[in-house]
Amino acid sequence: MVTLADVARRAGVSSSTVSYVLSGKRTISEETRRRVERAVAELGYHPHARARALAARRSYILALVVPLRVGGYEPVMMEVVTSVTVAARQYGYDVLLITNDEGPEGLRRVAVSGLADGVVLMDGAPGDERVELLRDTQAVLIGVSGDPRGLSCVDHDFAAAGAVCADHLADLGHAEVAFIADAAAPHDRTLAGFRDRARERGLRFVHRPCDRTYESTAGTFTRIMADRPGTTAFVVQNEGAIGPLLGLLRTSGRTVPEDASVVALCPDRVAGRHTPRLTSVAGPTADLGRVAVELLVRRLTAAARGEEPVDELVLLDPVLTVRESTGPVDGMRFAVQT
Amino acid sequence: MVTLADVARRAGVSSSTVSYVLSGKRTISEETRRRVERAVAELGYHPHARARALAARRSYILALVVPLRVGGYEPVMMEVVTSVTVAARQYGYDVLLITNDEGPEGLRRVAVSGLADGVVLMDGAPGDERVELLRDTQAVLIGVSGDPRGLSCVDHDFAAAGAVCADHLADLGHAEVAFIADAAAPHDRTLAGFRDRARERGLRFVHRPCDRTYESTAGTFTRIMADRPGTTAFVVQNEGAIGPLLGLLRTSGRTVPEDASVVALCPDRVAGRHTPRLTSVAGPTADLGRVAVELLVRRLTAAARGEEPVDELVLLDPVLTVRESTGPVDGMRFAVQT
DNA sequence: TTGTACGCGTTATCAA
DNA sequence: TTGATAACGCGTACAA
């Protein structure tokens, strides 16, 4: 292993001079710089990470805590993991992976041993024992809209997502809309956002929670059409209901989007897979990781300067992607029943 | 930050004594041990990872290199990532994530700086520039059946997977079988394994490569039934052809498994999603990560002892899961045409 | 502009 | 059984 001292000897200078040439934290004469750089190149010197970390009192490592089991959401997870890693590199940090099967102890290990400078937690909720542990550490929570003191958070703006759906359909001239929610995991914020915007835009709507089965979807659909026969558009928050709904529309003789518009609240990947390809509103998954790192780096930088880090909460704007499942009311095949 | 010296002062012993109490690498008198342990508890001391790493000349960190883009295989990736992480922890290692967008430089950084003790590479092929870099480091390749010198490798045993398919169908009494391969990514080893075992078992078979489209599958299916009307079973290696094939069987009036058996070479998750649920042969994904770590730890242990690490190649046995899509020829609805 | 000297927290070695 | 002391490799305040 080539050390700083080796380079110094070869260049005929002291080791600190080599260090300063490399860090650029001191002005160095042209002559000395050349000699040092040459010695570095000839010897193939690379700084030793552990020694550097020890001296600098920073490891330049971020810990990323991922859920061990993520039934069905692996693609989202992977995207967050890679975006965190790529963003971290841009700030000069590496990423250490912690699975939550270690429980609080895993976090404690990393935080207290100084292995990592900061923590990104993917599945933490306020009140979580681990979140409490993180108050001593610099940390950012992904997927949390609250603002636990001592932490920064980033999450999708679910209320805005609901509002975007309402806006899109109102813009297309729809006046009567159904919102099919997920009975199992109700994102109240999405519905609230939709409801508020719908009212502002003068949109009539019904809200129906629904299980993720064909039967439940069928029942919901039948009731909606019975109660509100003038319904011209559907907002589907329930991923499991998307397929069934499209099937029900088809078998009931309705073509999408000529006879009914459908907006899905789901990842683009899912929306693009259906026939017709669905207009959808999705949170920007990759931004989740990138922003988390930015928040964390900001905290670390502040802490390194001896300042008190600011607790920030970032809500990411949803992305509306117009595909083939929504159209203007004007162009609808049948007259709108009012 | 509480240091070893703080504890030593409090316990009235030297810092090295404290260290030995903690590591257990030396016999310590009961009296001294108690005093030290009390001081540790009172001060809330935790060893400092970086300092420990510097002194021990080992970081107890493994680098895991993951592909940045993994269209469609995120669940598999996630499973390998988590299994590597969990296995690493069991050996006392943490896992550092490297995305391959950094290219060879990322690996060089980690290897040369001593940040990690070893590397697990998920997407390396022999001849890869990065694989060459790894010869100086202790490394294991996942998904490689070759045996580049200086490395260990772990991969699925594709030939065995093919053989298992042949065995299963032969056991059920099938005598004439079709193998639908993936034209885009032909795993010759799977086909070879199937072919060899089919011959041993006296199975007649045709082999047809096929694109991942409905049209291609339809053409392939038609030709197979025309050439070999006595075909009673299908082995599908092409994931994109599974859905179409099931549809084609249905529309041609054949029920699975009464009229035709289907074995899919695909992840369990995919196999379980079809109707009927498919008998499938899959590689044990989680074992991929676990075994990779075991191989790497073995190399590291050897290297730490000054021994020459052994280059190992592990091929994992495929797993046959019998579901609803295969049945005995005896029970078939129509007579077998020969 | 450059060099000296010390600290970071742990472990290994040698001495007691 | 225990204790001093010297690395480990780098960063940086301080001195020159």
Present the secondary structure layout.
2 copies of one chain form a homodimer.
Chain A: H1 4-11, H2 15-23, H3 30-43, H4 49-56, E1 61-66, H5 74-90, E2 94-99, H6 104-113, E3 118-121, H7 129-133, E4 138-142, E5 152-156, H8 158-171, E6 176-182, H9 188-200, E7 204-210, H10 214-227, E8 233-236, H11 239-251, E9 261-265, H12 268-271, E10 279-282, H13 285-304, E11 313-316, E12 319-321
Helix pairs in contact in A: 1-2, 1-3, 5-13, 8-9, 10-11
The structure holds a DNA duplex (16 and 16 nucleotides).
Structural summary, described in words:
Two copies of one chain form a homodimer. By secondary structure, the first copy, chain A, is an alpha/beta fold. Chain A has three domains: 1-45, lambda repressor-like DNA-binding domains (434 Repressor (Amino-terminal Domain), Orthogonal Bundle), CATH 1.10.260; 58-150 and 288-317, Rossmann fold (3-Layer(aba) Sandwich), CATH 3.40.50.2300; 158-283, Rossmann fold (3-Layer(aba) Sandwich), CATH 3.40.50.2300. Helix content of chain A is 44%, strand content 18%. Chain A has helices at residues 4-11, 15-23, 30-43, 49-56, 74-90, 104-113, 129-133, 158-171, 188-200, 214-227, 239-251, 268-271, 285-304, and strands spanning 61-66, 94-99, 118-121, 138-142, 152-156, 176-182, 204-210, 233-236, 261-265, 279-282, 313-316, 319-321. In chain A, the strands form two sheets. The first copy, chain A, has a six-stranded parallel beta sheet with strand order 2-1-3-4-5-11, sandwiched between helices. In chain A, strands 7-6-8-9-10-12 form a six-stranded mixed beta sheet, with helices on both faces. In chain A, strand 9, helix 12 (268-271) and strand 10 form a beta-alpha-beta unit. The longest helix of chain A is centred in the C-terminal third of the chain and has 20 residues, at 285-304. The first copy, chain A, starts with a helix and ends in a 17-residue tail after the last strand. The model of chain A has no long low-confidence stretch (mean pLDDT 91). Chain A binds chain B through residues 1, 46-51, 53-54, 59, 61, 64, 66, 68, 70, 74-75, 77-79, 81-82, 85-86, 89, 94-99, 101-102, 106, 110, 112-115, and chain B through 1, 46-51, 53-54, 59, 61, 64, 66, 68, 70, 74-75, 77-79, 81-82, 85-86, 89, 94-99, 101-102, 106, 109-110, 112-115. Chain A binds a DNA duplex (16 and 16 nucleotides) through residues 1, 3-5, 13-17, 19-20, 23, 25-29, 32, 47-48, 50-57.
